[in-house]
Amino acid sequence: MPDIPIPATALRSGENGGYDGTTYYGRPSLKHAPFENWVVGGYVFIAGLAGAAQLLSTLADLGGGERAQGLVRRGRFLSLLAPVIGAPLLIYDLHTPKRFYNMLRIFRRTSPMSIGTWLLMGFSLFSFLTAGLQAVLDLAGPRRGGWLRRTARATQMPAAIAGAGLSTYTAALLSATSTPLWAAAPKALAVRFGSSSVASGAAALSLVGRRSRQHGLARDLDKLASLALAIEFGATLASERSYRAKGISAAKDAAPVLRSVAQAGTVAPLGLHALSLLLGRRDSAVADLASLAILAGSLCLRVGVMEAGDESARRPQDSFRFAKPANLPGR
């Protein structure tokens, strides 16, 4: 059998005999995900916000008493963002609507996409029921709505459970791929997405709550958002350490603007919330600015992770370093 010529770019060694990242004719070793990153990133952001809003409103309804009923009402309506806006974004990115409803024919517990599809459907169903009951309750008035309130409390429980899953399942979906940056730190990515979802849900509820002059509840939500941001910041540092250890160079090079906005949306609100707590009700504009920064940072976190993941797939040096066993030389 005749020898097959190998292009000169195919076999090169870097320092200490390690692989330097070149491939046949410089082609990527992986195919990056075919997502429209702003569309899918927008869906992930909206789904996380809506799921967290439903979860927070349910917890407030269970333990907040009459004082929290305004928050409960707003959370139930905010949860509709996922089915009304998020689901169409997801279907649009699939390009063919039947791809979405074909996934409803089966449930596969080993598939994050299958689990996520059913989470979205369950969340949408029970959130619509809860929000619809809340709308009827608003029309009927509190004195006539005893059974409506009890029914809404029953339907909000499965909605809250599905909402918690909706806030984090997208991290599992991305981590299950061969894209190096998404698969390099799956647990940290889940914590980043989950804590960012709680922060964005709390920020949205706080922002609307201040418009209704419920400043006490808004301050409580701001404290919760700050705690969630601190957790997200710690998970981000853990992700960065993992990327450095596994040689994912795209983590620091890709989407610099998105990464900067996401970082600002994590760090800046902590200072703004501290300032707002010192000022009290005298300057709600500072708290509003913090909430808006959280929402912008949460969106840019999702889109930035999508962009950086694509860039890591385009870089053979990232994929080969990530796939290489840790005990081989040059790791």
- How would a crystallographer describe the biggest sheet? none
In terms of quaternary structure, what is this? single chain
The run of helices and strands is HHHHHHHHHHHHH
Strand content: under 5%
Helix content: over 70%
Radius of gyration: 23 Å
Q: How many domains in all?
A: 2
- Shape assignment: globular
Number of strands: 0
Unreliable stretches covering 5 or more consecutive residues: 1-17
Q: Would you tell me the overall average pLDDT?
A: 83
Q: Would you kindly provide a written description of the structure presented here, covering whatever features stand out?
A:
The chain has 331 residues and is mainly alpha-helical. It folds into 2 domains: 144 residues; 142 residues. Helices cover 74% and strands 0% of the residues. It contains 13 helices and no strands. Helix 6 runs antiparallel to helix 8 and helix 9 runs antiparallel to helix 11. It is globular and about 75 Å long. The two termini are 35 Å apart. The N terminus is likely disordered.
Write the layout of secondary structure elements.
Layout: H1 37-63, H2 69-78, H3 81-94, H4 98-102, H5 112-140, H6 146-175, H7 180-184, H8 186-211, H9 215-245, H10 250-253, H11 256-279, H12 284-314, H13 316-323
What labels would you give this structure?
13 helices, mainly alpha, 331 residues, single chain
In summary, what is this structure?
The chain is an all-alpha fold and 331 residues long. It has 13 helices and no strands.
